[in-house]
Amino acid sequence: REHFVFFFCIQILAANMFKSVSLVLCLLGIAAAQLPDYSCTGATNCASATGYDRGDVMGCLYFCHLDANDDDKLTRGEYDSAYQNCAGTADNCEEATFEAIIMSVLPICASEADGMFREMSAKDGDSSTFVIGDVDVMWNECLEAQNEPGGEFVVTTGFRSVWLDSWDRIEDPTCTEPYP
């Protein structure tokens, strides 16, 4: 009988603990969902002062780098132009060129630039080269993330979802590059 009461008390405590943990997770989820969308207008559009963590700051900066006309959406032409800036007349974007360009755009460490190249170049299943096929896959991932397969524009929500998923694999926790 004592064992039954003890077991029953443990179940009640576990249930209450689960409820508490669930409540905390829900509140954290709500807080994260309240972060503003990326915005490419204004002086502090991508600053950590907006509540963004480092991954979101980098994502916002990269999105705005791609968004040539600052309208907070990417056309396929804007998306492709970044790749063309890297590839030039070649049929692929060389790793050294990519890393030099991306480090001029984002305040990231060399290890993160390398990780970003590896992440992006593997989209088509072959991580040895960064080709237009990788860009096609990334474009479609963003459209699917915003529930618009075949859509005309990538908006901040689609880009952000794909970026943050990649950033988890790219970020070097030892990187001390300052960021806005």
Helix residue percentage = 55-70%
In this structure, how is the largest beta sheet organized?
Answer: 2 strands, antiparallel
Radius of gyration: 21 Å
Tally of separate helices: 7
Through-space gap between termini? 62 Å
Can you describe this structure?
- By secondary structure, this protein is mostly helical.
- Helices cover about 60% and strands about 0% of the residues.
- The chain has seven helices and two strands.
- It has helices at about 1-35, 55-65, 75-85, 95-105, 110-120, 130-145, 155-170; strands spanning about 75, 155.
- Strands 1-2 form a two-stranded antiparallel ribbon.
- It is globular, with a radius of gyration of 21 Å.
- The relative contact order is 0.13.
What features would you highlight for this structure?
7 helices; disordered N terminus; mainly alpha; 180 residues; two-stranded antiparallel sheet
List the helices and strands and how they pair.
Blueprint: H1 2-33, H2 54-66, E1 73-74, H3 76-87, H4 95-105, H5 110-121, H6 132-145, E2 154-155, H7 156-170
Antiparallel strand pairs: 1-2
Short summary:
This protein has 180 residues and is mainly α. The chain is 61% helix and 2% strand. The protein has 7 helices and 2 strands.
